[in-house]
Write a structure and sequence with these properties.
Structural class: mainly alpha
Number of helices: 3
Distance between the termini: 16 Å
Largest sheet: none
Helix content: 40-55%
């Protein structure tokens, strides 16, 4: 995925309710700040959120589906 695709998917997903219970490393306050534009998530945080939500799969280069 390109960084632009990750950004689009992340923005769509953080608008959903009840995410804090699905992502153990992110607090409700952090999610609120991201939603309100008070702070911006790094690319790594965005990937982490999408991974915990099951929206992306991470695999090694030599692994097959």
């Amino acid at each position: 995925m390109s960084p632009e695709q990750i950004n689009e998917l992340f923005e769509a997903e953080i608008k959903k309710r009840g995410l804090a219970s699905k992502i153990p490393t992110i607090t409700k306050a952090v999610l609120y700040n991201w939603r309100q534009g008070r702070s911006e998530a790094t690319l790594g945080q965005k990937i982490e959120v999408l991974y915990f939500l099951g929206k992306i799969k991470i695999k090694k280069n030599n692994e097959s589906d």
